[in-house]
Specification:
5 strands; alpha/beta
């Protein structure tokens, strides 16, 4: 199982009073139990650090940053090729509140043939990937 982790999943697992905290922790524990290969992107980490800093403060953002560096999460980089693919996706989809960050995630999931996405963002369920992708959390 190769799982891409999105910002919302990281946020929910980190913030104890988030409405999805319990679900995020349960999914995280299951991924650990089944020894899933975990992936995210440099863009998602940047978005998560910024969100945590804005909503819960610098200490929380730095603590999360430190935890990520200790965990076995593969960080995929948004290369020029992935960025081009993300732009193509973004241009095609006229979906309210779709972020360019989501499009980079979609492009990475396609390029690396990841088979799961851990996200509370419904856009992950609507997007038609090039292969079968199960969304955890939505």
């Amino acid at each position: 199982m190769k799982v891409f982790i999105d910002t919302g999943a990281f946020y929910a697992a980190t913030i104890s009073n988030d409405a999805r905290n319990t679900a995020a922790k349960e999914i995280s524990q299951e991924l650990h139990r089944c020894k899933a290969w975990l992936f995210t992107s440099d863009y998602i980490l940047a978005e998560t650090y910024t969100l945590l800093n804005a909503r819960d403060g610098h200490h929380t953002a730095v603590a999360f940053m430190n935890a990520i560096e200790k965990n076995e999460i593969n960080v995929l980089r948004v290369s020029p090729t992935i960025e081009t693919s993300a732009k193509e996706i973004f241009r095609k989809l006229d979906i309210p509140r779709l972020s360019f960050f989501d499009c980079t995630s979609f492009a990475l999931i396609n390029a690396h043939r990841l088979d799961h996405a851990f996200s509370f963002d419904s856009h992950f369920s609507f997007f038609r990937f090039n292969h079968s992708v199960k969304v955890l959390g939505v």
